[in-house]
Amino acid sequence: MIVDEVGKLELQQDTGLEPELKHIVEYYKQNSSHTKLMLVVRDYLLNECISKYELIRPVVLNRDFFI
């Protein structure tokens, strides 16, 4: 699953797609051996996103990876 994109609203409580995104991330954590999740996040929000959703060992791809 690809979520494009996690922005400022999603990093706040109950704004934007935050409630749904929280459920998606929790589902992924419980089923990580069977599912893959890609979150598109701007570089200046990356650390906040990792912290908020308690992402364990995220693989961070720089946008140059896709060029």
Describe the structure.
- The chain is an alpha+beta fold and 67 residues long.
- The chain has helices spanning 18-30, 46-52, and strands at 2-6, 38-41.
- It has a two-stranded parallel ribbon.
- Helix 1 links the parallel strand 1 (2-6) and strand 2.
- The longest helix is centred in the middle third of the chain and has 13 residues, at 18-30.
- The model has no long low-confidence stretch (mean pLDDT 93).
Characteristic key phrases:
67 residues, two-stranded parallel ribbon, 30% helix
Quaternary organisation? single chain
Which consecutive residue ranges, at least 5 long each, have pLDDT under 50? none
What's the number of extended β-strand segments?
2
Helix segment tally: 2
Structural class: alpha+beta
Strand order of the largest sheet: 1-2
* Envelope shape: globular
Residue share in β-strands: 5-15%
Order of helices and strands: EHEH
C-alpha-based Rg, rounded: 12 Å
| Percent helix range | 25-40%
* Mean pLDDT reading: 93
Q: What distance separates the N and C termini? A: 21 Å
Could you give a short account of the major beta sheet?
A: 2 strands, parallel
